[in-house]
Amino acid sequence: MMAPRGEALFEVEAYRVQRISEEDAPLLRKLGERCSDHLELHYGSPVDPEQLVRDLVTDLPPGKSLADKFGLGLFESAGRLVGGIDVVRDYPEPGEWYLGLLVLDPRHRAQGLGTKLMVPLVHWLRGQGARSLRLAVSEHNEAGRRFWTRQGFEPVKQVIAEFGNKQSVFHVMRRTLEE
Ligand SMILES: CC(C)(COP(=O)(O)OP(=O)(O)OC[C@H]1O[C@@H](n2cnc3c(N)ncnc32)[C@H](O)[C@@H]1OP(=O)(O)O)[C@@H](O)C(=O)NCCC(=O)NCCS
Description:
Elements: E1 10-12, E2 15-19, H1 25-34, H2 36-43, H3 51-58, E3 69-75, E4 81-88, E5 96-104, H4 113-127, E6 132-138, H5 142-150, E7 154-163, E8 166-176
Parallel strand pairs: 5-6
Antiparallel strand pairs: 1-2, 2-3, 3-4, 4-5, 6-8, 7-8
Bound molecules: coenzyme A.
Residues 38, 102-104, 109-115, 137, 141, 143-144, 146-147 line the site of coenzyme A.
């Protein structure tokens, strides 16, 4: 039996988007295994089995606290975790939110789910007071960059960053959330 979860923040198709907590670590480890392709792209290999737990539960950008971090999970009705979203409030500046991660289980990609998910996510972010959204996409992630460009994100700058044992160029992108 799954422990009862909190209220859904929003829904997309049959999936509920809910806050992720420490208790979801076992589900995050399993999702991380299924998403090792994406994690390797950023962190090199081998991927730390705790990587998604860190991404969605504990990791913070400089100067932020856990009160600003929203690790969200996309859950099927049976409680299976099929995607993760990490957003941080007011980073790097007030009104701008930072999307640290959006990842779907490979079996749920390229069917329009990511595109559909962005609609209620943007709506929810606006409700939280976000006026713009920023993210960084790896030079090794062409499909990701196409996805964000279709979502209205525009290039801001390129930065070099090192995660795990891998150094990459990241394209920093942002879009306004104002209507
Ligand atoms: C990026 C990501 C979240 C996008 O979600 P998604 O559900 O796969 O995206 P969509 O299906 O809405 O669109 C992606 C592709 O599917 C195609 N597509 C859209 N609707 C489709 C449908 N109904 N049937 C088949 N293909 C479809 C799109 O044309 C697009 O193709 P392209 O990117 O090769 O040009 C997801 O692919 C993912 O988790 N990828 C790995 C992690 C990642 O790269 N995250 C983002 C970078 S930080």
